[in-house]
Amino acid sequence: MEAVALFSFTASEADEISFQKGDIVKVVEMERDSFWFTAEIEGKRGFIPENYISLHPHLWFAGAISRLEAEQRLCWQDPGVFLVRASESAPGEFSLSVSYGDRVEHFRVLEDGGQYYIWDKAFCSLNRLVEFYRAHSITMEKVVHLRDYPSFHLNSHLGLNPYPNPYNSNLLESTAALTRLPETGRPPHLHSNQF
């Protein structure tokens, strides 16, 4: 997931990475510690303080859910409705789950040197990968373009859709808290990086 740096940060440990205010940061892992994220900046990977950045959350990012839960969320959705989740089998990596209408397919998102890919075309971020497969079929067996959950389905309580929204609203609530600036306008206090 992409983020923008709210403040400059100078690394004080070998496993941290420095960045400047306004830099675009690629967050690659958020699960280990609530105060530090694993991120990548210009091909370098290390820890960054979570309260120095503002995440650009996407409704399609479901976080750490299981393959089974992804299938349950997507099984009755229109073809192309998708979500990205943290990989169960490869911690720190991602999987893309897509409704084919009659079934759900899962694609492992491979990462190599800061590039993400499913087939042979590489992208500098998950966001770019998703955008590409919105315009190009994710599979060769039939045409399936990634698409968001239709907005009218968000009103499922009105009876328009008997199936729940596949996107995790809790992620939006938790990432909204991360985007709040401290009232002082100064960088927030850093927490200890203990694992």
From TrEMBL:
Keywords: Lipoprotein, SH2 domain, SH3 domain
Domain of life according to the entry: Eukaryota
InterPro entries named in the record: Grb2-like, SH2, SH2_dom_sf, SH3-like_dom_sf, SH3_domain
Residue ranges of every copy of the SH3 domain listed in the record: 1-58
Domain SH2: 60-151
Descriptive protein name: GRB2 related adaptor protein b
Species of provenance: Xiphophorus maculatus (Southern platyfish)
